[in-house]
Amino acid sequence: MYKKLAAGVGVLIAVAHIGVLGHLGFNRNQARQPLEVVLPEAGEFSSYSITATPDGYSIDYIGNDPRVLTQTSETIRNGGFLNRNSETRVSVEYTQDGTRNIGSVEVLDEGKLSAEQVACIEAAGGGRSSGALVGTSIAASAIPFVSGIPYVGWLASGWVAMFGSDIGGNVGAEIATIIKDC
Hints:
Strand order of the largest sheet: 3-4-5
């Protein structure tokens, strides 16, 4: 009885496979249906490109591709005992709506910084130093609690002091550079 049932199921599966293979073979001989291509909207600041092959197509679309305008000015100084042949290039970028991007200053002489860059570095260093001192003193209030941890309390209290110093230094440097407008 089980042998007849297993043979019947096997014949049913074989017929189904043959039918599927015939269906796939029949569809391959038919002409392919053209695919519907929906083109994206292209405005003044958008673009797209379509690449089509026999296997399919791909669309590369950039929705808002603003043009950036750049204004560059150069200053060349010659002369003086210590200020020989220094050249400064200033670039200002404008976006599509007319707003000014933060300009960049490039100094071509190696090792020379502008006065603004030096002021920013000094502000960040002073803020980092002050912030580290404040952060360590605030973290010191947690040291008695942490030092009570068995076996590793002495080590954890050092970690707390170092962590407070690092966080305070980073916050102090950030605040100092914001105040100095760097």
